[in-house]
Description:
Layout: E1 2-7, E2 13-18, E3 24-27, E4 31-39, E5 42-48, H1 58-88
Amino acid sequence: MSLVLRQSKRSTRMLVFTRRKNQTIMIGDGIEVRVLRVGRDGVRLGIVAPPDVPVHRQEIYQQIRDANRSAAETPQKVTSIVERLRKRG
């Protein structure tokens, strides 16, 4: 196993591992990341995590965050619309 510590663009440190098929990386006591397949078009990973730990691809995680932000803004928008309608009536 090769282990490298690198500085990423966001000024945080990134731990970089080299793994082969069927080898794993453990994160804490409860999260296991296993290399299932390595191909020309990508790497297939398997993740075992406790049910209370959400695991998403980055693009799905971003969609969830955007939807949550939008939903959090909705009550303010609704209140604003209601106030404008009351002023008309």
